[in-house]
Amino acid sequence: DILELTLNNGVDPMTREQTGIKTGMDFDSFEDFYSAFKEQLRYCAEAEMMLINAFEENYDKIFPFPIYSAMLDACVECGKDAFQGGAKYNNTSIVAAGIATMSDSLIAIKRMVYDEKRVSLEELRGILNNNWNNYEDLRCVCSEEYPKFGNNIDEVDFFAVDICNALAKIINGRKNGRNDDYRL
Questions:
Q1: Which pLDDT value is given to residue 65?
Q2: Which residues contact 69 (CB under 8 A, 6 or more apart)?
Q3: In the predicted model, what is the mean pLDDT of residues 16-22?
Q4: Which of 8, 44, 78, 142 shows its CA 20 to 30 Å from the CA of 110?
């Protein structure tokens, strides 16, 4: 996920492949860390749209959909498949999942590493890469003591709103592979 890419300088910790951008490994402040997170967010959203565009540009060849097209007035009127230019609207939706979990994780990193200095970012990276092995007490602190999204706590809710706004700014209105718009 984007947070793991941020923690690991763009490297996927499971595959050890560079799948994100290099944003660094050490951050002097949470603001610096969060800025790197938003750079990863931008990169991943743009990479996703690039992949979708490549796929959508070939919809007419690989994904004709006659039954769906028969249900669209515009397709019936012009006699074309939805993916061969017959549909009136050709928007592409991107669904952002995991926003609440991301907000909870960001507040935990902010508190644990930067505010309370319980562990360094490097130590946290190691703990997470070892799935909290021998750090059950710290996992419980994250799980039980730190605030969570959905409880009307501004500090946590800020992240959900900010992430959604950032994604909407990156995605909404960009052209898709069928010459229409993306929508978050």
A1: 87
A2: 75, 76, 80, 81, 82, 83, 86, 87
A3: 96
A4: 44
